[in-house]
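Batch manifest, entry 17 of 40.
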Amino acid sequence: MIRTTALAAVVVASASASAATIDTYDNLTDWQNAVGGNFSVEGFTYGPVTGVDAGGVRTFDLGAAGSTLITTYESRWLGGGSGAQNGSGAVIDDDGILDRVAFSPLLESSMNLSSAQRSFGLQFQLSGGDTLAVGIGILILADDQGNTQVLGQVDESNEFFGFVTDFDFTQILFQPGGNTGGASQNQDTFRISTVYASAVGIPTPAAAFTGVAGLGLVAARRRR
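Output type: C-alpha cells
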C-alpha cells in the first residue's frame, strides 16, 4: 500500500483548501482488507451493451443493462486527429470494457457511479488485445461534482489497481497518461474486466476525533 496526499479542489472561493489522502493498492486482497470486506462488484455478466453515439460521445447505459454499481460509461472524442468520431470505438461485452485513451485525437472516458463511493478498484489489462496500444499509460482520476483528484497512473498490466480515499466521489475518469517516449506513443488501449467499489474509506480527522471522544465518554460513564 502506498499513501499519497493531494490538494483538494476548492468548492467555494473563500473556503480553505484541505488535503485529501489516497492509499493505492496493487493487490486485490489487501484492498479488500482495507475496506473491511465491505464492497460491491461489477463483472459485466449481463452480456454485450450497445453504445449510443451522439456529439462525439459514445454512451453505454449500464444501469439499464442490469448494473447496480455503474449508471453509464462514456467514451469521448474531444478534438484533433483526422476528424470527428464518436468516442474511441469503445466496446462493452461479457469480457468487460475495451477502450482507449489518446492525445491526438484527444480521447478520454468516464465511469459514472450510482452512489457516492470512497474506495475503488479495477481488474485491468493494458493493450487490451488491441495492436494500436503503444504505451502512454492511463491516468485515473476521481470526480465528485467537479472536484477532481488524481488517483494515479497505470503504466503496465498489474492486473489490479485500487485506492482508498477520505473523500466521496461519484465518477471515475480515464485520461491519457504522461509516458511520452516518442511521437509514436500517442495512445493506449485498456480492458477492464471487473470493478470494485466501497463506501468505506480512510477515516477523516473529524470522524476519528468523534470516535475517540465517544470512547472517552463511554469510559467516563463506566467510571461512574
